[in-house]
């Protein structure tokens, strides 16, 4: 097998903005005075106080009265009238109510009377369960004893309103809570609102000093930040700020982190959201969110809007083809108009990030919308060393760690891979109960990230283990015998992931241009494993599946894309093209004649056969070296470059062309000396498929 080493705060409308209590006050759009955060419980507290006040008003007569209340039965009251206990001298303010008869033993005080030290005693006679004839009989008895009956009074107006408020207040509170719940994020009432997160300046602690390994991209964005800080310098010469900046690069290269650094350096409001936040099932919702986002950003201008994964929103429109998406296309149209249309805001900068530039709509990429495209590429060896240095400050590291060597072993890694590598090394050291991370943990972490987790407990019989060792040593011996192949870094027959073993190559220097001879050497290295099995066992195995697949793909690209075949010529025969809907290569109907396709297949087969013959010749002529390498590899299971060099020196004491390589035999070279450009220059790993 062969592979390449490489690798909140919600922005709401003004009526519903609710910053958290622990958030710091942010500056207003002018940047002069801080805006005090609105308390999230202020409206609720006012409602609670209103309910408590209403209850106090209703029950105030009972809470603040000083009178003593005594309950009598009607028979006791009638008997008291007959006995003279209740008469006109101690029965005052007698009233007939619907449910009770009330009176007191003292007359009502007049305004000119001095306050009495003795509180009146109140009497209450329940009559709710009695018939309708009792009232006339009792009134007659009272009149016979000369007691005056006061007219009945209904409840006061404020008491009636208070009772109504007590009943209505819980219903109003329940209605408010239901509306707030229904109107929250993601609900039906919030479809048209932007889901962007507004970051205050105090929340953004990432600066350009924290971004390493992508110096060119940082320099490009520093100009945008400087324009936001001092626009007069550019406007005096007639310059204008870019309306859009598109960050393009492979996954994990630091595009989002670079956007955070721009926000931390710019000192202006920063709104962050994903392209998928605009996509909904209902047509028109995404367009409404785009308009709402720009409207709120304009209120805080100058402002930066960052849209991550822009390809989810900005894919090329279908042009009437079946399978179109009306909702996404309307959302894209709204974004195009807001960025460069009638009434577009000049002080709102849009930043986007994507790793699928080929699927974006051309109208989105034109000047006036995304004026600048900043490439955030994989870091070189110096960039990887700088990134590793940043991540290594977070762990306890031994002084013996060779940082340049780790950077060399991680050719093709991106920033996310390097962060994961440092974390894996720290976890391995902790698993071994070490006090600090050493060089061994970093090299083991490289193997783990590239080839997978080691399966130490996997049971492999001796015959299969020996075949795997011959296969991996065949890869390594071929790489050491060809002057254009990358040096071998490590050979292992410990199962990792889906492989039974692997051979890792590491280039001496960064390469961005690969020649034809180097590609042919790579094909020979890929075929070295199956050639070794053929020489030793005279029978192939399925372990070479990935090797054959990658060797065939390289040979086909040499013929059809890079013009490296003298028979086919310097013509680009493309049988596939990029789809406007997908980032990968999409097959289409053949555009060449059957004769041309046949010639391409024959030329690919000729290159593979010639490479295999050369590899077989290496295996047969250096059979003793292959046997020695296999015996030592079975014994130690993992062989480094120093161990391999000692074996090669023992069997070939003469001069070498390049350290670790030997001159070819006198056999005729089946290839020509054509060169071509390609970007596949990363370090490689060869392995045996499981």
Describe the protein:
It is built from 20 helices and 17 strands. It has about 700 residues and is of the alpha/beta class. The protein has four domains: about 65-110 and about 115-155, Signal recognition particle alu RNA binding heterodimer, srp9/1, CATH 3.30.720.210; about 190-315 and about 325-375, Rossmann fold (3-Layer(aba) Sandwich), CATH 3.40.50.300; about 380-450, Helicase, Ruva Protein, domain 3 (Orthogonal Bundle), CATH 1.10.8; about 460-690, Peptidase M41 (Methane Monooxygenase Hydroxylase, Chain G, domain 1), CATH 1.20.58. The protein has a six-stranded mixed beta sheet. Strands 1-17-13-12-16 form a five-stranded antiparallel beta sheet. Strand 9 (about 305-310), helix 9 and strand 10 (about 350-355) form a beta-alpha-beta unit. Helix 13 crosses helix 14, helix 15 packs across helix 19 and helix 16 (about 515-535) crosses helix 18. The longest helix has 28 residues, at about 595-620. The chain is elongated and about 145 Å long.
């Amino acid at each position: 097998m062969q592979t390449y080493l490489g690798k909140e705060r919600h922005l709401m409308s003004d009526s519903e903005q609710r910053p958290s209590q622990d958030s710091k006050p942010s500056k207003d759009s002018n940047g002069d005075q801080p805006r005090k955060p609105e308390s999230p419980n202020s409206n609720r507290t006012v409602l609670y106080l209103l309910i408590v006040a209403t209850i106090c008003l209703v029950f105030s007569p009972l809470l603040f009265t000083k009178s003593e209340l005594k309950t009598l039965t009607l028979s006791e009251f009638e008997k008291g009238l007959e006995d003279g206990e209740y008469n006109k001298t101690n029965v005052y303010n007698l009233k007939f109510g619907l449910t009770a008869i009330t009176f007191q033993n003292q007359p009502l005080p007049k305004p000119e009377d001095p306050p009495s030290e003795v509180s009146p005693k109140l009497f209450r006679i329940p009559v709710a369960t009695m018939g309708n004839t009792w009232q006339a009989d009792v009134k007659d008895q009272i009149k016979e004893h000369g007691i005056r009956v006061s007219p009945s009074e209904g409840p006061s107006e404020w008491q009636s309103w208070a009772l109504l408020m007590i009943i209505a207040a819980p219903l109003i509170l329940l209605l408010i809570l239901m509306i707030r719940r229904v109107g929250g994020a993601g609900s039906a009432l919030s479809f048209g609102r932007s889901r962007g997160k507004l970051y205050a300046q105090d929340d953004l602690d990432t600066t350009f000093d924290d971004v390493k390994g992508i110096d060119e991209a940082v320099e490009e964005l520093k100009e945008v930040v400087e324009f936001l800080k001092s626009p007069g310098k550019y406007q005096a010469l007639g310059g204008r700020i870019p309306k859009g900046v598109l960050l393009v690069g492979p996954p994990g290269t630091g595009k989002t982190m670079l956007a955070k650094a721009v926000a931390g350096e710019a000192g202006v409001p920063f709104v962050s959201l994903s392209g998928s936040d605009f996509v909904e099932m209902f047509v028109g919702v995404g367009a409404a969110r785009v308009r709402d986002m720009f409207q709120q950003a304009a209120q805080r201008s100058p402002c930066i809007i960052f849209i991550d994964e822009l390809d989810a929103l900005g894919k090329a429109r279908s042009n009437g083809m079946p399978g179109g998406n009306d909702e996404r296309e309307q959302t894209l149209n709204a974004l195009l108009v807001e960025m460069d249309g009638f009434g577009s805001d000049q002080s709102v900068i849009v930043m986007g990030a994507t790793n699928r530039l080929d699927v974006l709509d051309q109208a989105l990429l034109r000047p006036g919308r995304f004026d600048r495209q900043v490439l955030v590429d994989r870091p070189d060896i110096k960039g990887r060393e700088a990134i590793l240095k940043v991540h290594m400050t977070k762990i306890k590291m031994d002084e013996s760690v060779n940082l340049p060597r780790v950077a060399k072993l991680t050719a093709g890694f991106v920033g996310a891979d390097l962060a994961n590598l440092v974390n894996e090394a720290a976890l391995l050291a902790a698993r071994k109960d070490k006090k600090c991370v050493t060089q061994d943990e970093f090299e083991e972490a490289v193997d783990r990230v590239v080839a997978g987790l080691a399966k130490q407990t996997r049971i492999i019989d001796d015959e299969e283990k020996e075949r795997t060792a011959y296969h991996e040593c065949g890869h390594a011996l071929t790489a050491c015998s060809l002057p254009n192949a990358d040096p071998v870094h490590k050979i292992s027959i410990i199962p990792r992931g889906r492989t039974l073993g692997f051979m890792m190559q590491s280039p001496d220097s960064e390469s961005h241009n690969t020649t034809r001879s180097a590609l042919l050497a790579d094909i020979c290295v890929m075929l070295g494993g199956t050639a070794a099995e053929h020489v030793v066992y005279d029978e192939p195995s399925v372990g070479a599946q990935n090797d054959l697949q990658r060797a065939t793909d390289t040979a086909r690209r040499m013929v059809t894309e890079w013009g490296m075949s003298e028979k086919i010529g310097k013509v680009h025969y493309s049988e596939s093209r990029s789809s406007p809907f997908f980032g990968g290569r999409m097959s289409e109907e053949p555009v060449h004649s059957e004769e041309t396709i046949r010639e391409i297949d024959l030329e690919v087969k000729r290159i593979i056969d010639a490479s295999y013959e050369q590899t077989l010749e290496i295996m047969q002529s250096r059979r003793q070296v292959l046997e020695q390498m296999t015996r030592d590899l079975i014994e130690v299971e993992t062989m480094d470059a120093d161990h391999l060099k000692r074996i090669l020196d023992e069997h070939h004491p003469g001069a070498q062309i390049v350290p670790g390589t030997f001159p070819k035999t006198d056999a005729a070279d089946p290839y020509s000396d054509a060169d071509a450009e390609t970007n596949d220059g990363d370090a490689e790993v060869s392995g045996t498929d499981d």
